Amino acid sequence: MRRSGLGPAGIRYAFVAATAAYAVVGLFSITGHAGQARDVSAAGSYSAAQATRGKQLYSDQCLACHGEMLEGVVGPPLAGDDFLTDFGGKPVADVIQKIQGTMPQQAPGTLTKPQATDLTAYILQFNKYPAGSDLTDATATQFTLPAGKAAPAAAPAPVAGAQGIPLNVATNLAEFMRGITFPNANVIFNAQLRSPAEDKPKMPIPYDYVLWGRTVYYGWQAVDEAIAALKETTPLMLLPGRRCQNGRPVPLQNADYQKYVHDLIAFTDQLKDVAAKRDADKLSEMADSLNNTCANCHKVYRDVTPTGALQSSSTQGGITADRCNPNPKVDPNARGL
Fold first, then answer.
1. Do residue 291 and residue 179 come from a single domain?
2. Which of 44, 105, 143, 318 could form a disulfide with 312 if both were Cys (CB 3.0 to 4.6 A apart)?
3. Average pLDDT of 315-320?
4. pLDDT of residue 324
5. Domain that holds residue 200
6. % of the chain beyond a pLDDT of 90
7. Is pLDDT at 129 greater than 90 in this prediction?
8. What HEC string does the chain produce?
9. Claim to verify: residue 69 and residue 133 sit in the same structural domain
10. Strand-pair partners of 38
């Protein structure tokens, strides 16, 4: 057997080097495991204490918009498959970032990082994911939410518009209607109060840009423009990918919803014919018909009744939470715009 050429000092050096090498290998092994993605369903991603604090904070800051059962009222659902539609397969850190950066709705960005983390812990607890150690910045990037029963549907391809410019959904149905349909329909409804020929607004004092605009375009010209706006924009209610204010998809697949939209489009043609004749009395009559045309859709998809305790904790909340239900209950007392 060949004798080693290492002396006592050399042997000690070799032993230290080998020990250090094993330590480095072990360190990389540990950190590599810690950095791997872990499903919240299989391991405790938050502590019970965090969830308790988060529940109290949720009651104070979030319940009015998201509901007692996290079902979504004005804001989107934070439980079940609807929640995973937005966050399924993503790290828990995305939920924390969303909460801290955009919530609460009336004062976004006012929550601290620990508060957003506690709220996320409560959401995880409510969705029945197991508790464990504290949720930290490091573990929040490692824990991921499950994809749910079905993978999130791919976003619809943009619809090609004039000159190939894509038409993309920019807002939910409620904001769309409040920004476009509601104010233009009100111009028509005003015909029940006075003839457009008598509509001559005065210059506002003190000055106001919105009121000043009414002094530039008013009377029958304003009626013509409102009808044109309704005619051109109502088809956008059928644009794929739009959601309702509560996060539900607009029920484009329902034949009755499609009919209500087409009825409004067709009604604008009738309004245009009457406006062209400058017939104020007939326009006043048609303003009432416009209200009924709108109410036909509202009584099915907007002014609906709650479907039960799981939908909402209150009647008011249920009305919002149950909007755009693909299998709705009908409210016979629904109003127009």
1. yes
2. 318
3. 47
4. 85
5. 169-321
6. 52
7. yes
8. CCCCCCCHHHHHHHHHHHHHHHHHHHHHHHHHHHCCCEECCCCCCCCHHHHHHHHHHHHHHCHHHHCCCCCCCCCCCCCHHHHHHHHCCCEHHHHHHHHHHHCCCCCCCCCCHHHHHHHHHHHHHHCCCCCCCCCCHHHHHHEECCCCCCCCCCCCCCEECHHHCEECCCCCHHHHHHHHHHHHHHHHHHHHCCCHHHCCCCCCCCCCHHHHHHHHCCHHHHHHHHHHHHHHHHHHHHCCCCECCCCCECCCCCHHHHHHHHHHHHHHHHHHHHHHCCCHHHHHHHHHHHHHHHHHHHHHHCCCCCCCCCCCCCHHHHHHHCCCCCCCCCCCCCCCC
9. yes
10. 143
Read off the pTM: 0.54
Most confidently predicted of 6-15, 62-71, 161-170, 264-273: 264-273
Q: Looking at the structure, do residues 272 and 209 belong to the same domain, yes or no?
A: yes
Q: How far apart are CA 27 and CA 88, in angstroms?
A: 31
